[in-house]
Amino acid sequence: MVSAIITAAGKNKRMSDDQKARGLDIKHKLLLDIHGKPVIIKTLENVKNTGVEELIIVLGYLSDEIKRVLSDYLDLKIKIIVNPDLNIELSDTLLNGVKNVKSGLCLCTAADQPTVSADTLNNLINAHNSEKNMVTILARGKSGYLDSTKGLGMPFVCHSKLLKKYLPGKEDNLNPILNNMLEDGVIYYGVNPHNSLEKMNINRWDDYITVLKETE
Predict the structure, then answer these.
(1) In contact, 4 and 13? CB cutoff 8 Å
(2) Where do the structural domains in the chain lie, given as residue ranges?
(3) Contacts of 154 (CB under 8 A, 6+ apart)
(4) H-helix or E-strand containing 55?
C-alpha cells in the first residue's frame, strides 16, 4: 500500500511580499499558471502518475479558492482535508495528512514542487524496501546512504508509522524532525533528481519565473 500526501497549507507570505514589491496583483503561488495549468495541478498530476493508491491534499490558507481549482481534477482516490487552524507548522500539516491515510508507505511532497517528475517520485518509492525504519528522500547533494539531513525536505517516502511516531507535538518545520529521526537510527537513502530544477520549491517570484523559463 502506497499513499501520497501533498501539503498545500502555507500562508504564501514570501510570494505575496515579492508580488507587492513588484506592484503585481497578489495571487497564491499554488494558483500561478505554468503553461496552462496552476502549480498545484502540475504537482497533483505528477503524484497521480506514480500510481499511488490514495492521495491526500492538506489545505489551509485560501483553502476555498484552491478547492475550486482542484474540483475538476478530483477522483475517488483523492481526498481533500483542511487544517482546523491556519497558524500551524508544516509538521502539523503533514500529521493531519498522515492521520487520514491507510497504514503503509507514504509519499510526502509539497504542492509547490511541480517540477519533480513522476519518474523521480517513483524512484523514491522503488528505492524504499518497506522497512519501517527507513526514509528515501530526494538528494540535494550526496546520494545513496546518508549520514546527514542538512538541506533535506520533501519529497520523501517512509512508513506512516514512522511519521505518526515523530510528528506529534513537534510544531516545527520538517528538517529538524528529519534530523531527530536520523539521530535515533532511522536509515536515510538519497535518490538523485533527474535535473537541478527538480530540487526547486516555488517560494519566491524569481523561483516561479525560473520554472516558467526552464519548462518552456
Answers:
(1) no
(2) 2-214
(3) 7, 108, 109, 110, 113, 138, 174
(4) strand 54-59
Residue 73 Cα to chain centre, angstroms: 18
pTM of the full structure = 0.94
Which DSSP symbol is given to 111? T
Distance from first CA to last CA of the chain, Å, rounded?
Answer: 35
Question: Which pLDDT tens digit goes with each residue over 156-178?
Answer: 999 999 999 999 988 778 899 99
Angle between helices 118-127 and 39-48 (to 10 degrees): 40
The rounded radius of gyration (Å) of the Cα atoms in the chain is 16
Q: How is residue 216 written as a grid cell?
A: 518552456
Return the closest-CA partner of residue 114 out of 31, 18, 24.
Answer: 31
Maximum Cα–Cα distance across the chain: 50
Q: Is the peptide bond before 155 cis (omega within 30 degrees of 0)?
A: yes
Q: Which of 187, 159, 183 is nearest to 98 (CA)?
A: 159
Q: What are phi and psi of 179, to 5 degrees?
A: -65, -40
Question: Architecture of 2-214 per CATH?
Answer: Alpha-Beta Complex (3.90)
CA atoms within 13 A on the CB side of 160: 18
